[in-house]
Amino acid sequence: MIRLKQLIEVLEAWAPPALQESYDNCGLQCGQQDMVIKGVLTTLDVTVEVLKEAIDSGANVIVAHHPLIFKPLKKITGANEVEQILLIAIKHEVAIYALHTNLDSVNTGVNAKLAELLGLEKLRILRPKTDHLVKLEVFVPSSHTQRVLDALGNAGAGQIGNYKNCSFRSSGTGSFTPAQGAQPSIGEIGKAEEVNEDKIEVIFQQNLQSSVLRALRDSHPYEEIAYYLLPLQNVDQEVGAGMVGELKTAMQWEDWLTHVSKALSLQTFRHSPPAFQQVQKIAICGGSGIFLTQDAIRSGAQVFLTADIKYHEYFDALGKITLVDVGHHQSETATRFLIKDYLSRKFPNIAVNFSKTDTNPVRNYLNR
Ligand SMILES: [Zn+2]
To answer: pLDDT digit string (tens) for 310-342?
Structure first.
């Protein structure tokens, strides 16, 4: 018996809610955390049709990329589709959960899936997040150094790229005098004490701070732990907006167009005149990514593939990088497979399916 709370913990270990943008509204949109999961349906958008698909298939949890609720609601009377969905979902006890810009920001999220479809390799984040890393410096009696290091590592501290348990330590002498009321693990009240201590330094992502500090408190022997938390200005290469990668071999522009239409199953898409006749380095951002154009140019990419590009934005990029607009829905629709695959791996005993409803509100007229 698996409860919604467990599913949410697993999703948030992958895409921490702390990584969402300020305007976003990720997380549980409706439903109760203690409900028992019967089945999960993954989707890009939540519509009445998707909700009915979930109910008909026996799924009582919908995991979506786009949040159902964006603006605060003052009443739920069914006056619009969001309210109708909420009424039906509550009546049928279906929970709705959204991973949005937090899933955009992780390097195994929306853009990694898009890159996989396009056959891009050597991936890195296009605009890595800054102000996201924290350094912990803590003083530990040498007898407990390994124990504290292990606990910090298990909480996710010291992970830099593909390296785990990264830390630095130096040895010295700690001194203190336990005062009245103290319950020292070393030393006596009123007597100056000196102890061989190690100073441990580790870096971690800000969203891990509470679990790292909990691990520190649980593993450290002292009543009062001496530690510093230092916000870092280093960029976090693991987290951020957009991605850039390379095709295995360079392609002629015309071949690249065919490649895109096949890889993303597109009948039509828009692009600017090619800035380069040969393409290999490709910047991407699922959804509305045009704010990343300068980062894409700086990365040396010949193409920036995203969605929701406006007329004048094409002008701004002319000759510097080729813009490709595949459509918002088309750039992110594979996210439902991504979430499905992740949850199926983590919960092999739960029926997880992706929605077969076409939720794209934009249609193309093709004059054949
Ligand atoms: Zn989107």
So the answer is: 999 999 999 999 999 999 999 999 999 999 999
CA–centroid distance, 215 to ligand 1, in Å, is: 36
CA of 297 from ligand 1 middle (Å) equals 22
How far is ligand 1, taken at its centre, from the CA of residue 309, in Å? 13
- Separation of 7 CA from ligand 1 center, angstroms? 22
Alpha carbon of 189 to ligand 1 centroid (Å) = 61
Strands 27-30, 270-271: pairing is: unpaired
Distance in Å from the first CA to the final CA of the chain: 53
Query: 367 falls in which pLDDT band (50, 70, 90)?
Result: confident
Long-range Cβ contact pairs of 10-16 (< 8 A, separation 24 or more): 10/343, 10/346, 10/347, 11/63, 11/97, 11/99, 11/343, 14/99, 14/103, 14/106, 14/108, 14/109, 14/342, 15/99, 15/102, 15/103, 15/105, 15/106, 15/109, 16/102, 16/205, 16/207
- For residue 332, report the distance from its CA to the centre of ligand 1, in Å: 6
Q: How far is the CA of 206 from the centre of ligand 1 (A)?
A: 25
pLDDT at 161 over 80: no
Q: Indicate whether 164 pLDDT > 90.
A: no
How many Å apart are CA 40 and CA 110, to the nearest integer? 19
Give me the domains of the chain, ranges plus CATH numbers: 4-103+334-354 (3.40.1390.30), 106-128+240-326 (3.40.1390.30), 131-234 (3.30.70.120)
